[in-house]
Amino acid sequence: QVQLVESGGGLVQPGGSLRLSCAASGFTLRSYDMSWYRQAPGKERELVASITSTGISTNYADSVKGRFTISRDNAKNTVYLQMNSLKPEDTAVYYCNAQRRLLGYWGQGTQVTVSS
């Protein structure tokens, strides 16, 4: 069974950090470009960060540049999103996406809430 499972979300104070993980099962991430998206209440899903299958190239939304870092460990079949200096506006459900040409998979999402 093909699955992407996100974990690591939670409640954190402004300025804090969280590390999200996205673990794949039923397939290998090695040949997939990976991305993190987020969706806040009442808003459309937006791309947060992406990393190519080789890990050589990364891309970030302007709103998270310098604060978030996407990485991958193909040996562990896992992708990460390190989030630092979190702001209330980062509050959203974060989703992991694996994409290879027209084939894509989504995780179920993990809630991140930034609040004092």
Based on the model shown, name its key terms.
116 residues, mainly beta, 4-stranded antiparallel sheet, 11 strands, 53% strand
How helix-rich are the residues, as a percent range? under 10%
Oligomeric state of this protein:
single chain
Please tell me what the overall shape is: globular
Low-confidence stretches: none
Q: Roughly what fraction of the amino acids lie in strands?
A: over 45%
Q: Radius of gyration over alpha carbons?
A: 13 Å
**Series of H and E elements:** EEEEEEEEEEE
Largest sheet: 7 strands, mixed
Count of DSSP H/I helices: 0
* Average pLDDT reading: 96
* Topology, number of strands: 11
Query: What structural class do helix, strand and pairing data support?
Result: mainly beta
Distance between the termini: 39 Å
Task: Give an account of the 3D structure.
This protein is mainly beta and 116 residues long. It is 0% helix and 53% strand. It has strands spanning 3-7, 10-12, 18-25, 33-39, 46-51, 58-60, 68-73, 78-83, 92-100, 103-106, 110-114. It is built from no helices and eleven strands. Strand 5 (46-51) and strand 6 (58-60) form a beta hairpin.
Brief digest:
This protein has no helices and eleven strands. With 116 residues, it is an all-beta fold. Strands 2, 4, 5, 6, 9, 10 and 11 form a seven-stranded mixed sheet that branches. Strands 1-3-8-7 form a four-stranded antiparallel sheet, with no helix packed on it.
